[in-house]
Amino acid sequence: MYIDVILPVPLDGVFTYSVPQSLEGQVRVGVRVLVPFGRSKTYVGIVDKSPVNCQLSDVKYKDVLQVLDASPILTDCQLRLWQWISDYYMSPIGEVYKAALPSGLKAEDGYRPKTELYIRLTPKFRSEQALHIALDMLQRAPSQQKAFIDFLDLALSNEDYLAGITRDELLNQGHTLATITALVKRGLLETFEQEVGRLNHGGEPHPERIKTLSLAQQDAYNQIQFAFLKKNVTLLHGVTSSGKTEIYIHLIQQALEKQQQVLYLLPEIALTVQMMDRLQRIFGNRLGIYHSKYSDAERVEIWQKQLSTHPYDVILGARSAVFLPFQRLGLVIVDEEHETSYKQQDPAPRYHARDTAIVLAQMMGAKVLLGTATPSTETYHNAQTGKYGLVELKERYQGILLPEIQVVDIKDLQHRKMMSGPFSPQLLLKVREALERGEQAILFQNRRGYAPMIECRKCGWVPHCQNCDVSLTYHRHLNQLTCHYCGSTYQVPVECPACGSRDLASRGYGTEKIEDQVREIFPEARIARMDLDTTRSRQAYERIINDFSAGRTNLLIGTQMISKGLDFDRVSVVGILNADTMLNYPDFRAYEHAFMMMAQVSGRAGRKGRQGLVILQTKSPDLSVIRQVVNNDFDAFFRSILAERRQFRYPPYCRLVYVFLKHRSDSFADAAGHDLGRLLRQWFGARVLGPDRPAVAKVKSLAIRKLVLKLEPGLNMSDVRKYLALARQQMLQDKRYTSLQIYFDIDPL
Fold it and tell me: Does residue 12 contact residue 53 with C-beta atoms inside 8 Å?
């Protein structure tokens, strides 16, 4: 018997092993097997194809060492999804395996269930007469007698008193470990380990808590239902605070009534904090949460629960939740579908969770609802051309007005020396008034750290990363310089190594510097900062969001994390400190991303009770995109973007593929880029652009070159991928390029 096995290695294809006769009855598709690899390594692999009996006399295959599962940990649908991701995104299936499975399912020693120490009566003291004898025995040991009586009270309060109680329960009654140990030594009590789940048991479901939809929401809900009769994917385009979540809840409840499962995707882990509380009040223990900030053991337990006979009916999660096993998936909700966070950048596979979720739903016969106030250009184009259904919700819930957006020309104010650092007088005034009224404010600066760089005022020297082609970001609270590409840290120089001057100054503003200056300007404010540096753990996310929601903090400073669907009742003022950093980014999507980010962060203002105010600071107030944000004119913005995209052949009028080459030698990377470009032009002609040096041309000591393929609709993408794979193979066969890395980014963002 021979089987094909998927291994967690970055090599194309699967690997064939022979199955010893003693293990033949245990091998099934989707189970994990322990196999040897190379001279000395062993890996946990996944059986990919049905076992076959055949005689292969020419090849000696290695034996499977062990079968690790009694039943499959992957469904057939998951394996098909893995293969689709591998094929479509041109990534070895071993890379998909590494991204999809929790680490505890990939390790040889595997996942260890969480256990807790319990105590119970020993068999000889489980009768009423024996208990009287025990109490008499303890008359001269009052502390032990009291502990034994408390134990009995706790144990007898359970339906099954012989099941025992946790040792911690008795310790919480004020008894010592020594006292409990003495009762065990006397033979009255015994201890035992019992497996306990790490999962949150959210309580009983309360569907009666679902709110009645407004007339506008009900109309949108009905339109979605009708669209689903004709389309498998529907876009819900609703302005910020229009009540899209309430519509989702009604759709989830309808799916549950049909005995279907629901996958609810969010782009940021931060969003799951608020959404979890909201959904758990209604769906209780039918709701499971899954994202990378949960411990590996928790993720393994959720995975196993989804394979059980009582899986979660609703999964709320970030990007990685698309990989969970589903048995009867009926609805997928992709909230904030426009968000770039859904696209995995590094490492491979460079998949898009929104598009992957659509494929998963198609495989399982489920419907997909994409929700957003600012649809991506490709999604909106698909909706406008009839590929997707389209439902629009143009008014805010309870008739609350969209925020007033006031544009402040900071170029003029800087010229007149009226700016206080990055703050205009108008912004400071409105924030102060909001705080004095007991309201809250948000300041948005899409750059973390203290300052983007430090600079010698005498000669202009700027410290750069030794491994990457970028300047170092100054983090004042850590007193270090950090590379945001490779993570390397450096000491802050005392003097300039170029000219010896000690006149070094920070340039620009990161969220850390904004926070310091805001504390000086508003000493009475209760300030929180939300960026990658302050949200390293799940608890940090929850603390920052819960404190702001409860009013324990009243001024929130943050990066794009705060722009994504968070719902705060008392925010009346939002400040966008510098729109130009988003608008001037060297990318064809810069205006699209800037419009989305500004519209989304503006939507945090005035969500309950009154119209909010947004102060939008920019040096380019006359740009059309600024006017479109102010007027919330998505249609005009979309028309202008489409006209540009059509003229210059960008999505949705073509498919993009980026081809990256990396090598330790800059000259080798350059030569390889030109060789690969010539090779690709033999097949694709003028569709190939480059090679070019990207904006960041060295990362982690590797020089980078980039080729771009612009592929018109109608081209057979399967053939395109075959030619790309062939080109890579031919390049790597050249002895000069043995250490060259070539990889592809399909549908890049």
Answer: no
